[in-house]
Design a protein that fits this description.
InterPro entries: YjdM, YjdM_C, YjdM_N. By secondary structure, this protein is mostly beta strands. It contains one helix and eleven strands.
């Protein structure tokens, strides 16, 4: 069985190598391994210290955060358990005790 990657565009397993490029015969998409690694690295969500976050992690808030539409503030050092990673500007869906469901940016948390 071939150890070549499947096409990232159409998912075809029939890719072949042409020099430094990979080519898909079904959709004619061409890419190289460096592009594929860069895309995989870009999909990772990291905290303020550069640690990779994953679903279910526990994080700590590193900055006072005002809650939009409320007079509440999420204080520095607040622990958030069981985060869920989502795409978009605010990377983290979570529930904070005393405040409720929130979306946070990963740049304002650190992994515990």
């Amino acid at each position: 069985m071939s150890d070549l990657p499947a096409c990232p565009r159409c998912g075809s397993p029939y890719t072949y190598e042409d020099g430094a490029q990979f080519v898909c015969p079904e959709c004619a998409h061409e890419w190289n391994a460096a592009d594929q690694q860069a895309a995989a690295e870009a999909d990772l969500i990291r905290d303020a210290n550069g640690n990779v976050l994953s679903d279910g992690d526990t994080v700590t808030v590193i900055k006072d955060l005002k809650v939009k539409g409320s007079s509440s503030v999420v204080k520095v050092g607040t622990k958030v358990k069981g985060i869920r990673l989502v795409g978009g500007d605010h990377d983290i869906d979570c529930r904070i005790d005393g405040i409720g469901a929130m979306k946070l940016k990963s740049e304002f948390v650190k992994k515990v």
